[in-house]
Design brief:
The structure holds two protein chains of two kinds. The longest helix of chain A has 12 residues. Chain A is of the alpha/beta class. Chain A has an eight-stranded mixed sheet with strand order 2-1-8-7-6-5-4-3. Helices cover 28% and strands 20% of the residues of chain A. By secondary structure, chain B is of the alpha+beta class. Chain B is 38% helix and 18% strand. In chain B, the strands form four sheets. In chain B, strands 16, 17, 18, 19, 20 and 21 form a six-stranded mixed sheet that branches. In chain B, strands 1-2-5-4-13 form a five-stranded antiparallel sheet. In chain B, helix 1 packs antiparallel against helix 2, helix 3 runs antiparallel to helix 13 and helix 15 packs across helix 17. The longest helix of chain B has 22 residues. Chain B is globular. Chain B starts with 5 loop residues before the first helix and ends with a helix. Classes of the chains: A alpha/beta, B alpha+beta. The interface between A and B is large, with 33 and 38 residues.
């Protein structure tokens, strides 16, 4: 059974998932759906008009920039980690948050392990479909393990150089 | 030099705690070696042929005496009493026990040392000109910018899973002592026409199985934009770099496939679209870092030291050391002292705990508490008064650290090779030792002059053989160790890649071949010509003929 963890106000907790992920050749079910970028480009208008919430799943070799025009109408973007070592979706997440100004749910799917949790949270992900047996408590602990960060990212943590200015 | 403040120290403490927990999970069998591997690699811990190897970061090759003493302590307590300085200016301990690793990191953290990002597909520990802050030819201190990059790249959330490892080198001088053209990114500081500090940005250099020299994608990047520009470079690489074949995943392959012009265009577009102010350091932080590297403690001295001059004329061995191992300092009355880790017959780059302690003592007493590590696998005391040189030399000499061979034929770069490394095809160390013994006579070595031999035990090229004036590559030929000789490489400001001379030779054929190559050089060279210059003028033919004449 696929689990979903969500980050809210610094806490990661288990959550219900109202979305159904559908394949490109699959018939549309009722309710909220996550479709591929290709299907969204094909059927986006129709999907968005049908009183449901729509999410788009983006593979690491696809460009989230192509969603720029519709970004305000989307409720969810899912970025895929085919292997945990494949780090392209970290950059995609930052583009989605910082450049496209997406404020909906940004979900990490694929080989998503707690060991990468703090990096994902810093890149703007706020929802995770864990592929390991980790608990929400372990995820929360992972995002808090380091008291400081050295660089700005897509979260609201202050980097060391800002902390230092405050002390000085 | 830069000393870690509370924030830096707490970063190390948090990392040590995390790694202690991860090691405990592995030792308890809660995770497999396969799951543990990417975790330990993020902390420089490799499983090698005989034991775990720990690679300790020495950011931009700079140490103080307390740090050097801690390295000695760790080598003595947890290893076999010595360590190996690498071409990446790190220190490797080759006989570590996994259960000791967290304690070692805790000990290192006490003096601001760590093993963060010394392996794995992330932005690695960076290197810089080892003469920084001491040489007269630099336009700015590269350590200021290296430290800025160190902080920015540490635990970078977006760039911790790059296609492949990513190495950066920085120099502030026109003379390249950091091999910046063979790095993923090489940065060279200069002043633009208005006198403002700027970086020449080179990308896509690298050795390994497909060697490339870096290509300039920007001649003049205003220095204050360094970090935002680096973010753009690494982001373009992270998104577009290949991930389907481990041998084609370095940035050099992407730059070569796209062409430097197209790669540069993508970087510029990404950079223009990004929020630079969110990434670049504020002036206050740059000033804080700069202040940490400001020159302190220099005395006003006359340029000429009578004691130094007298010692040179009285003692030929000292004079030889002064000629070969001491470089001019920007401060009158001081010198930059190279400490050779290439004693004849020893392992290049190896240093015993006793030697580390002795260098630490010398640094504290005579070099404003500083030691540097050069990529040529030597140490440097950067700020020694000429008046003190005779005493410093005598102390180094007593510990086997004063071999007067810097830049000469026995100052050989060699990777650990098959004696330690699981990747190697052939041994490197015995080859280096054998060549050094053949050219042991310091008068002969000096007569030959600058000649850089670099040896790698496999195609991964940790020994930089592609950029050796003479490069030697160990290969496996039906279960036997063979060595391929290349000529004409250079990692300096006149960088070039060496070309293979001919068929590989068995181990016992290497030193005789070097001997013949040197004979040809001595015969062919014109007045004042270095080996590399003779080779470039005369070409490979005379060398090839001499090496392979008998075989044919």
């Amino acid at each position: 059974m696929q689990r979903l963890f969500k980050l809210r106000a610094g806490e990661i907790a288990a959550a219900e998932d109202p979305y159904t992920t559908i394949e490109d050749d699959q018939d549309l079910p009722r309710g909220d759906v996550i479709v591929s970028l290709a299907r969204f480009h094909r059927e986006g208008e129709y999907l968005l008009d049908c009183c449901r919430q729509v999410g788009v799943r983006i593979a690491p070799d696809e460009a989230p920039e192509s969603l720029a025009g519709e970004i305000g109408r989307l409720h969810l973007i899912a970025l895929v980690f085919p292997k945990f070592r494949d780090g392209r979706s970290y950059s995609a997440a930052r583009i989605v948050r910082d450049r496209l100004r997406f404020t909906g749910e940004l979900r990490a799917v694929g080989e998503v392990f707690v060991d990468q949790g703090r990096f994902m949270a810093r890149c703007g992900f706020d929802a995770f479909v864990p592929a390991d047996a980790s608990t929400p408590e372990q995820w929360t602990a992972a995002t808090r393990r380091f008291r400081h960060v050295y660089q700005r990212a897509s979260d609201d943590r202050e980097p060391a150089f800002v902390e230092r200015e405050k002390v000085a | 030099m830069y000393n870690y403040d509370t924030i830096d120290a707490e970063m190390l403490a948090d990392r040590t705690a995390e790694f202690r927990e991860q090691c405990a999970r592995r030792l308890a069998g809660a995770i497999t070696e396969e799951q543990f591997k990417p975790i330990r690699l993020k902390n420089g811990l490799y499983l090698q042929l005989h034991a775990y190897m720990l690679r300790i970061a020495i950011p931009y090759g700079t140490l103080n005496s307390a740090q050097m003493r801690m390295l000695a302590h760790v080598a003595r307590t947890y290893d076999r009493g010595y360590g190996h300085f690498t071409t990446r200016t790190n220190l490797q301990l080759h006989w570590i026990k996994l259960r000791d690793a967290p304690d070692i990191l805790a000990a290192l953290a006490k003096v601001g040392l760590h093993a963060i990002q010394t392996s794995g597909n992330c932005i690695r520990n960076l290197t810089a000109d080892p003469h920084a802050g001491a040489t007269a030819d630099e336009v700015d201190d590269p350590r200021v910018w290296a430290e800025a990059i160190r902080q920015w790249s540490t635990f970078h959330p977006e760039f911790s899973y790059l296609p492949r490892k990513f190495k950066i080198a920085v120099t502030g001088a026109p003379k390249d002592r950091a091999a910046v053209q063979v790095y993923d990114v090489g940065l060279r500081l200069h002043r633009d026409d208005d006198g403002a500090l700027a970086f020449q940005v080179m990308v896509g250099g690298g050795l390994g199985r497909t060697p490339y020299l870096g290509q300039t994608i920007r001649e003049r990047l205003p220095a204050r934009y360094l970090l935002s520009y680096m973010q753009a470079v690494v982001r373009v690489y992270n998104r577009a770099g290949r991930r389907d074949n481990i041998h084609k995943q370095r940035i050099k392959i992407l730059v070569s496939d796209l062409g430097a012009e197209e790669f540069a265009r993508r970087v510029e577009a990404e950079w223009e679209a990004s929020d630079k102010a969110a990434v670049d350091l504020p002036d206050t932080e740059l000033a804080r870092i700069r202040g940490a590297f400001a020159a302190r403690g220099f005395e006003s001295l006359p340029a000429v030291s009578p004691a130094f001059e007298a010692a040179k004329s009285e003692n030929r061995a000292f004079a030889r050391f002064a000629r070969n191992n001491v470089a001019p300092h920007k401060q009158p009355g001081y010198g930059i002292v190279n400490v050779s880790l290439k004693a004849i017959g020893e392992t290049p780059g190896d240093c015993s705990a006793e030697q580390m302690d002795l260098v630490a003592d010398l640094a504290e007493r005579f070099s404003l508490d500083e030691v540097r590590v050069a990529y040529e696998q030597n140490l440097i005391l950067p700020h020694v008064r000429l008046d003190d040189l005779p005493q410093v030399w005598a102390t180094l000499e007593s510990a086997g650290l004063a071999t007067p061979n810097i830049g000469l034929i026995s100052d050989i770069i060699a990777c650990p090779g098959l004696d330690y490394c699981a990747l190697a095809n052939a041994r490197s160390i015995p080859i280096a030792q054998d060549i050094a013994r053949r050219f042991e006579d310091p008068a002969l070595a000096e007569r030959i002059g600058e000649l850089k031999i670099k040896i790698s035990g496999c195609i991964n090229a940790c020994g930089h053989h592609h950029v050796g004036n003479i490069g030697i590559l160990g290969v496996d030929k039906k279960g036997e160790e063979y060595y391929q000789i290349s000529l004409g490489g250079s990692a300096d400001d006149d960088a070039s890649l060496a070309k293979i001379l001919g068929p590989g030779l068995p181990a016992e054929g290497v030193t005789p071949a070097i001997d013949r190559i040197v004979e040809v050089y001595l015969r062919e060279r014109r007045e004042g010509e270095r080996f590399i210059e003779t080779y470039r003028r005369a070409g490979a033919e005379p060398f090839k003929e001499a090496v392979y004449a008998e075989a044919v």
